[in-house]
Amino acid sequence: MSSISTNQPLSSLNIFSFKGVQMRTFHITWLTFFFCFFAWFGMASLMPLAKEQLHLTKDQLGNIQIASVSATIIARLLIGRLVDAFGPRLVYTWLLIICAVPVLLIGTSQSYESFLLFRLAIGVIGASFVITQFHTSVMFAPVIKGTANATAGGFGNAGAGLANITMPLIAAGFVGLGVCTHEDSWRYAMIVPGVLLLVFAYLYLRYTKDLPNGNYKELGIANQKKENTFMLAVKDYRTWVLTVAYAACFGVEITIDNFAPIYFTDTFGASLKTAGVCAGIFGMINIFARPLGGIIADKVGKIYGFSGKNLLLALLLIVEGIGIIFFGLTNELGFAIFLMFLFGMSLKMANGATYSLVPFINPKAVGSVAGIVGAGGNIGAMLIAFLFKAKAVKFTKDLIDADGVTKTKELIDYTNAFYTLGIIILITGLIVLVVKYAVKNSNED
Questions:
Q1: Cα distance between residue 101 and residue 81, in whole Å
Q2: In the chain, fewer beta carbons within 10 Å around the N or the C end?
Q3: What is the pTM of this model?
Q4: d(CA 93, CA 206)
Q5: 187-227, pLDDT tens digit by residue?
Q6: What values do phi and psi take at 89, rounded to 5?
Q7: Which sequence spans correspond to the domains of the chain?
Q8: What is the largest CA-CA distance in the chain?
Q9: pLDDT band (50, 70, 90) for residue 407
Q10: CATH number for the domain formed by residue range(s) 20-434
């Protein structure tokens, strides 16, 4: 039970509690973030359908992946500054309303170009992460910030996993109801996440507060508007260490969320539903793995401080890199799923550990630091997408369709890309490990 008053940040996190503005905001923000990720990656498990209907090539698929994460880079940088200035409540509401438009309209795409533009626009929803992390940071006391941030982030990130599992089922449901054909089912399925974004825009505006003691406008908070919080974040080298680290963990997470369905169908011959479930397992790990990273980081921080958390982050990145290397080498589906779970655990714990450090870089610029570090994750994803585009191998295979007719199809193998990625992450972890990462005048307690 928290020992502080109801209009102050909480010093404990009881996820089964809905009492008070802090816990109400906590649950609404992670649920909103959950459905933002659901919408962002709603197309991932449906890409085999879109790929076939729109006749997308390997290069075009690579460009679509790059587009889906590149817009988020600019959006996260901008959103961080906006949240510092205007508060999370209004900024989140407008973000949800604006991003619902391309999610609802992507199903109207009739060409690669229009699909690419809608996928680019949908990527802006990834900036929701910055607002979520800011909102949990201000609702909880320093001793529990890492746990609160990681739990909200982990629960929210799981939306990508649920999307991979359920979007093929939603598409199949529309077909079963006679609404559309199998080929067009991906178009109708994307209406569902678009509507959900609008629902949560209303809930966020109606039931959250910017701070435990009220909204920015009510409290007359204007000093952040005058102070350049972005430059405060930019000038601190620790911001950039975390940015690189987050590129190596969250950047990989986005890549797996996007490429895993196609990887499992093309490399291992899995069906669309099976590939969606396999990729979904990776996303759903977030429910417990990212919170675990934050919890352990908070405990390490109490004993060893800021630098101890950094050591934990480095070790998690090293384990992640080793796991991905072996994932890229295996050619057996069951073992690949096991390795994906293994490196996924360390990756998502690293995500949580990273954002247990973010709130302590500069308390005057939490939004800007969160935005820069979050953008780093998407820069990593964009660079990894170029890697996958370069390393992907095209091959043809004879497949028997539902009517028993043998057809030759062009497939894509990303095995070499995963192996190379693992080497890069391992090296990144070692670099973070040797960087002297001290904290000056830490606000951590």
A1: 23
A2: N
A3: 0.79
A4: 10
A5: 999 999 999 999 999 999 999 999 998 898 888 775 444 56
A6: -60, -55
A7: 20-434
A8: 70
A9: low
A10: 1.20.1250.20
